[in-house]
Design goal:
Blueprint: E1 7-13, H1 22-38, E2 42-49, H2 60-70, E3 76-79, H3 82-85, H4 89-101, E4 106-109, H5 119-152, H6 175-189, H7 194-203, H8 216-224, E5 231-234, E6 237-241, H9 250-266, E7 280-282, E8 290-293, E9 298-301, E10 315-317, H10 318-334, H11 336-345, H12 350-373, H13 379-404, H14 416-422, H15 428-438, E11 439-444, E12 459-463
Parallel strand pairs: 1-2, 1-3, 3-4, 7-11
Antiparallel strand pairs: 5-6, 8-9, 9-10, 11-12
Helix pairs in contact: 10-14, 12-13
């Protein structure tokens, strides 16, 4: 069939247990053979390996295919079977709408020999998509029942990655890793933080089962899991004893869960003692500086290692830095420029005007989408009209965000002297809110070794207002 110069080939398989992509490779070979028979030129092959078309999760290659078709970059589509394209009837309708709007009339399948460009072919495709969806739903129900049964029996659930502390059979305990788990649990219950335990694991050259460094979320999942206590879990709930040996006592796991729950309920791991937390950047690597307390001083430091990723080569004493930047904020609050800026932002109708403008812009986008769907405008016209509207939306959202960020400063511009007198009586959260409303961040450069005072030239403030 002539006239096709930029055909798209799509291949997908739901489960690739061996990780060799053999299923999609066979699909691609058959699709290439069909393209050659039709005389079509293949412009690109789109492959989603090991991804379900029934779950509704995003398929990157499929989404790129739809985008390229909508943009007019592809003039035909070949797929092995309609159930490789989708197993959800609603998704098939979206696909048909996209190719129709783009003027693509050639959609062919290796298996099934139907053409979605014809009425009969579309009817057959809809029936096959409905059948595929029903098959997937039935399979899903059978699999859930199987998993529930194996969970009740205490049988381990399969997976490509073995659990830490156990061999690949998911039952045999790996002694050296089991000892690490016992030490982690004991140290966590003794009061150590997950972050410090991650650092300890790195120092001991203990990696995850995939060879990576430990991070707090990964370690939290290990310590709270029922597996290490010999318990079988299903969908996050313990359903009974497991068929493998426990590494720790179930009572110790309960204590771990209790400590984690206590920390969540408190809302904060430690009381706030640093007014500039989150507002400082390392002048060497650009990373955030973190609060670090010593016996005799408070400091902000650039931390390397898990959860931080800094260079570890910069430290600044907290008190003089906080005093310097707080005073700079006071002076900025007393400046006429800031008062004028805030007065302009806080006009009575400013927020209402921005909100009305956003609503109008969104309504225009919706109207454009309807026009494009009805083929009243082309894809090129749709993009040309959409771009300036999206720019306006971004600008209005930015201005509205800036307007609301100044709430912490109500009544303060021009009253820096009064604020100085009240500063020590304010809570640290209130102090931090005031500073953060004016200061976006401050870059701290390296200082001289052994210096006992803060050199102001080390500090470069980047103001929000």
């Amino acid at each position: 069939m002539s006239g096709v110069r930029a055909a798209a080939v799509y291949a997908r398989i739901s489960s690739d247990t061996e990780g060799k992509a053999l299923g999609v490779t066979r699909q691609l070979e058959d699709c290439r053979r069909l393209a050659a028979q039709l005389g079509w030129t293949i412009a690109q092959e789109y492959v989603d390996n090991d991804l379900s078309a029934y779950s509704g999760k995003r398929r990157p290659a499929y989404q790129q295919l739809l985008t390229d078709v909508a943009d007019g970059l592809r003039d035909a589509v070949i797929c092995y079977h309609v159930d490789r394209l989708t197993r959800r009837p609603v998704e098939l309708e979206q696909f048909v709408t996209t190719v129709d709007a783009a003027g693509v009339r050639q959609v062919r399948f290796v298996s099934g020999d139907m053409d979605l460009g014809t009425g009969d072919g579309l009817l057959i495709g809809r029936i096959m998509a409905a059948v595929a969806a029903n098959e997937s739903a039935a399979k899903s129900r059978r699999m859930r029942r199987k998993w529930e049964q194996t969970a009740a029996q205490g049988v381990p659930h399969g997976g490509s990655v073995r659990p830490f502390g156990y061999e690949a059979d998911r039952i045999t305990v790996r002694p050296e890793e089991a000892e690490v788990i016992r030490q982690l649990v004991a140290r966590y219950l003794a009061g150590e933080s997950l972050r410090s335990l991650c650092t300890w694991l790195t120092d001991q050259s203990v990696s995850t089962v995939t060879g990576g460094e430990w991070r707090s979320p990964t370690l939290r999942g290990l310590l709270r899991s029922g597996r290490i206590a010999g318990l079988r879990e299903y969908r996050g709930e313990v359903v009974g004893p497991a068929q493998w040996a426990p590494i720790i006592d179930p009572a110790d796991r309960d204590r771990v869960l209790a400590r984690m729950a206590e920390r969540v309920a408190s809302g904060r791991r430690t009381p706030r003692r640093y007014v500039l937390s989150g507002l400082l950047r390392c002048g060497k690597c650009g990373g955030k500086l973190y609060a670090s307390r010593r016996e005799t001083s408070r400091r902000y430091v650039c931390l390397p290692g898990p959860d931080h990723g800094g260079c570890g080569r910069l430290t600044v004493v907290a008190e003089p830095l906080e005093a310097m930047l707080v005073e700079a904020v006071m002076q900025r609050l007393d400046g006429p420029e800031l008062a004028d800026t805030l007065a302009g932002r806080r006009s009575d109708s400013a927020a209402a005007e921005l909100s009305d403008g956003l609503a109008g812009d969104q309504e225009q986008l919706d109207e454009l989408a309807v026009m494009f769907g009805k083929q009243e405008i082309s894809a090129r016209e749709w993009r040309a009209a959409r771009e300036p509207i999206e720019r306006r939306i971004h600008d209005r959202q930015r201005r509205l965000s800036a307007l609301t960020q100044t709430d912490a400063l109500t009544g303060l511009p021009g009253n820096g002297g009064q604020l100085r007198d009240q500063w020590e009586s304010l809570s640290l959260s209130r102090q931090a809110a005031i500073v953060g409303a004016v200061l976006d961040h401050a870059v701290i450069e390296a200082g001289q070794l052994g210096a006992r005072s803060l050199d102001p030239s080390r500090v470069r403030a980047v103001w929000r207002l």
